[in-house]
Amino acid sequence: MSEWVLDVRAREGGAEVVLVNRFGTTRRAFIKLSYAAYLLPKKLGPQELAEAVMQHPQVLAASVEFWRAPPWYDVEVPVVKVLTESLRAVKEVAERAEELGVGQRINTYPHPLTQALWRAGLNPCSRVDPVKLKTVEDLSDPLYRPPPYRVVELSIKKRAGTFALRCNGESVQGELRDLATYSDVLAEAHILLYSGPLREVAREFPEVLKPPVKVCSGTSLVGVTGLVEWCRISWTPLRLLANATIGKVLTTVEGIEALRRRYLVPERPARVESFRPVSELVSADRGGIVLTPEPGVYFNVAQLDFNSLYPTIIAKYNISPETVGRPGCSSYFEVPEVGHRVCLDVRGVVPAVLEELVRRRQRIKEAMRRADGYFREVLDERQAALKWVLVASFGYLGYRNARFGKIEAYESVTALARYLLKKAVAVAEREGFKVLHAIVDSIFVTKEGAGEEDYVRLAEAVAEEVGISVKVEALYDWVVFPPTSRGTGAPTKYFGKLRGGGIKVKGIKAVSEAYPPVVRKAQQEAIEILARARTKEEFAEAVSQALKVIEGWMEKVLTGSIDPEDLIIKRRLRKVKYVSRQPHVIAAQAAGIKGGYVEYIMAVTPYPAGLGFHGYSRKYYLSALKKVLNEFKELAKHVK
Fold first, then answer.
1. Which residues lie below 8 Å from residue 178, measured CB to CB, with a gap of 6+?
2. Which pLDDT score is estimated for 250?
3. Burial class (CB in 10 A: 0-12, 13-18, 19+), 427
């Protein structure tokens, strides 16, 4: 009978594995594993260091291997590989060697448990041989059968004293004191997806801690399906990924590739940017290209997007810390604008990893076209999880503490992105299209009388010119680029009516939690009225109706007939200590909240929403609504 790994915990001499069969039954098994520490010899010779660490009672073996050293990985150096019985022994051996100055620990990423599972061939979210405890499915296949994990969702509202429980599509709500009634549901859960103060509630209801894996929905960027995808590509147990950053996932995958190649990666990479004139720094230190749009309403518009632009550039042009500026290469590519030279003789770690992730995501997206129902939802969550990693990959190239980063590599990517987007704009203009807006990896174009086929042909022409896949992301009956306070177009804000129905909104108040519901609802309702329009004449009439809707919300605020729930502002506390007395800080202090999110109502003295309703500042909420009103008044002046 097939079984899937649910969780793995390190133990002395190996690891405890929690397995799930297709009926949802769990069992625990023990697998022998060794945990590795890698030491770069210092005062002692490699063999002397290997013999010295063997004195530790939990060291199983110590051997000398030859690894490639940074920055170019063209020179081999001796490394002592130490295999131990436990994670504790790994730490003790490494710390002792560094304390005595005889060795430096390297390749601490991935986590030693992850490394051990990778060496043993036991992926922690895969289908395994129940006897050998080895993965028996193709991990390169992104269309795998979802593991039969039983997920229970628990929402805890401690202040209100209530909870909501969801399992197998069924939901229940109740008083928190009655949570023990559902202890059997919690006991049978494999994964608990929770929100609220779980540990605090566990003091009274310990059954909430029974599921082997617990994931806080408020801190994880992806759901359980996305975590499973991260687990499979990074060989890291779900439990360790529950609160992991995207950077940790990315660095782990890159770290596995470095291990495979025997590339030495120091704990604190020493990177010193070479001296360059100020003029050269200014030229290189720029982001992607942005063509600021003229504010207004535009009809018959298409949005063309590069597919995974930055990761694709990295993979296509072999951009990696050890390839940019590498000396002694026979084949180079020179980056436009900045002049950095990229070695093409060897495949870089970062492009090798990202090429596989881009290919994996593309396979999933292709399969989504044929899938429907539940499996399509699963595939969508998988591709979204990969998208998060791919989006982060570019930023980590320029992050100073990244193990696989380098500023010149980062500059090379942005320079190429600018170069390719300029070429895309030139192609569009050559083909008779007007470019309304261009930002990083998207361009908005229009052409009188153009249909969908015309825009598809343009995408194909751009793709052929730049050598990267381009798609028609959206077709709009109309698009609005709202003005800024200075009267210019806002480069990161727009909304438009999609050709097939619906509204796409980006960067405006209607989709931002920084604004209270009264502002978001007013703008959203106004946009929905605009969505009924298809022609310029209809749009002008719709703007008049939209203004009346916004004025209606202002009237509610003015007369006091507004629902208090629509006044609640949600802000995140990002610092431990605040010097300035900002409204959300005042409210958080009144509520005794020191971290996370605070919900409050703006008044003369802002106060926590949880303390009940005690009035509000009409001036503040009217001012916020007036900004929305003025934005829509401007639309009537800019119908193009």
1. none
2. 95
3. buried
Q: What is the DSSP letter of 6?
A: E
Q: What is the C-alpha separation between 625 and 551, in angstroms, rounded?
A: 8
How far is the C-alpha of 201 from the C-alpha of 523, rounded, in Å?
A: 39
pLDDT in tens, 65-109: 999 999 999 999 999 999 999 999 999 999 999 999 999 999 998
Tokens coding 183 = 């202890």
CA-CA distances (angstroms) from residue 561 to 484, 498, 564, 566, 602? 31, 34, 9, 11, 16
Is the pLDDT confidence value at 522 over 70?
yes
User: d(Cα 114, Cα 125) in Å, to the nearest integer?
Assistant: 12
* β-strands 151-157, 162-167 pairing: antiparallel
Note the pLDDT tens digit of each residue in 563-606.
999 999 988 887 656 667 889 889 988 888 777 788 999 999 99
Q: CB of 80 within 8 A of CB of 64? A: yes
Query: Contact 450/499 with Cβ under 8 angstroms?
Result: no
Q: How far apart are CA 550 and CA 555, in angstroms?
A: 9
Which of the residue ranges 291-295, 344-348, 381-385, 468-472 would you say has the lowest mean pLDDT? Answer: 291-295
The per-residue pLDDT for 109 is 87
Distance from C-alpha of 476 to C-alpha of 498, rounded to nearest angstrom: 4
pLDDT, position 94:
95
- How far is it, in rounded angstroms, from Cα 267 to Cα 95? 13
- What residue ranges in 330-394 does DSSP mark as E strands? 332-334, 341-343
pLDDT digits (tens, 9 = 90+) for 191-207: 999 988 888 888 888 88
Three-state SS annotation for 445-501:
EECCCCCHHHHHHHHHHHHHHHCCCEEEEEEEEEEEECECCCCCECCCCEEEEECCC
Calpha distance 23→21 (Å, rounded): 5
Could you read off the pLDDT of 255-300 as tens digits, one per residue? Answer: 999 999 999 998 766 554 554 454 444 444 555 567 788 888 999 9
> 212 by DSSP, 3-state: which?
coil
Radius of gyration of the chain (CA): 28
Enclosing H/E stretch for 505 = strand 503-506
In this prediction, residue 362 carries a pLDDT of: 94
3-state helix, strand and coil shares in percent for the chain, rounded to the nearest 5:
40, 25, 35
Write down the residue that tokens 């050709």 correspond to: 499
Residue-averaged pLDDT of the chain: 90
Shortest CA distance to 67 belongs to which of 55, 78, 80? 78
Q: Measure the CA–CA gap between 191 and 212, rounded to whole angstroms.
A: 6
| Under 8 Å between Cβ of 305 and 146 | no
Predicted pLDDT of residue 262: 97
Apex 112 CA angle, 108 and 117, nearest 5? 135
Distance in angstroms (rounded) separating the CA atoms of residues 90 and 50: 14
Contacts for 245 with CB less than 8 Å, ≥ 6 apart: none
Give residues with Cβ within 8 angstroms of 208, minimum separation 6.
154, 179, 186, 192, 194, 198, 201, 202
- Look at residue 384 and tell me whether its pLDDT is greater than 60: yes
Give every CB contact of residue 255 below 8 A, 6+ residues apart in sequence: 107, 109, 110, 265, 403
Pairing outcome for strands 191-195 and 213-216: parallel
